[in-house]
Design brief:
Layout lengths: L5 H32 L12 E2 L18 E6 L2 E6 H7 L1 E6 L2 E6 L1
Parallel strand pairs: 1-4
Antiparallel strand pairs: 2-3, 4-5
Length: 106
């Protein structure tokens, strides 16, 4: 016996094929996005930032010598020196100045 709706059956099969292909494409796309999102993390630097450092007065800083390098910051009447030797070990110092937060790096 011949089907009453041969064209509709073919159309239905075509839609199922399209849905199947769309599902496969979506799954493949989702897999590739998931794989991209799960890339291994970049290796971290061995530095540990210093937050809210403690300071010594100039007369107490006997570990510093004339040839030692420092990064100096002066804001108003407040002067601070960040020794390059310490910065090279930590990479970053986050501190406060009278005008707001600062970051010092070497």
């Amino acid at each position: 016996m011949r089907s009453q709706f041969p064209k509709q059956k073919g159309l239905l099969m075509t839609n199922r094929k399209n849905l199947f292909l769309l599902a496969i494409a979506s799954t493949t796309l989702a897999s590739s996005v998931g794989a991209a999102a799960q890339k291994p993390a970049e290796p971290r630097l061995p530095y540990t930032a210093v937050h809210a450092p403690q300071f010594n007065s100039a007369s107490e800083a006997t570990f510093l010598h004339d040839p030692d390098r420092v990064i100096g910051v002066m804001a108003g009447t407040v002067a601070k020196a960040y020794p390059a030797a310490i910065l090279s070990q930590h990479g970053l110092v986050e501190d406060q100045s009278p005008s707001g937060p600062i970051a010092v790096t070497w």
